Amino acid sequence: MAIWHGDITLEQVQQSMGNCMPTFLGMQITELGDDYLVGTMPVEDRTRQPFGILHGGASVALAETLGSVAANCVVDNSKFYCVGQEINANHLRPVAEGVVTAKATAVHIGRSSQVWEIRISDPKGKLNCISRITMAVVPVPAS
């Protein structure tokens, strides 16, 4: 059974990222499962640190993007929106090139908060980063 609010498509989810940092870093949402979201990001000059490997901040940006997009797909956006409260990441192994793939899955979906785990893997499928984000569920202000 899907956890998403309403009928959403992969195209709608991709468009929800807008024309901001995720798009600039080359992130794409590639899969929308019943209870998970998958996205990718290239390892290239925009996302590498000076030593030639994937920047930890870029991994965290990918994790936060997937967690935020997923959290906002769970709630009724006419009544609520979700914003990050806390994120952590463990960087396990370097990635020098290719495309990393991240999968966000819900750990907790509550009325006022959500917790998502994001696992980022290298092109060979080896885990290179694991992250967890806590999202606040905020009421949309009355207009």
From TrEMBL:
Q: Does this entry carry the keyword Hydrolase?
A: yes
A Pfam family assignment = 4HBT
Presence of the UniProt keyword Hydrolase in the record:
yes
Q: Which InterPro entries match?
A: HotDog_dom_sf, PAAI_dom, Thioestr_dom
* Keyword terms of this UniProt record: Hydrolase
Specify the Thioesterase domain's residue ranges: 51-127
Lineage: superkingdom: Bacteria
Q: Which family does it belong to?
A: Belongs to the thioesterase PaaI family.
Protein's recorded name: Hotdog fold thioesterase
Q: What is the lineage of its organism?
A: Bacteria, Pseudomonadati, Pseudomonadota, Gammaproteobacteria, Cellvibrionales
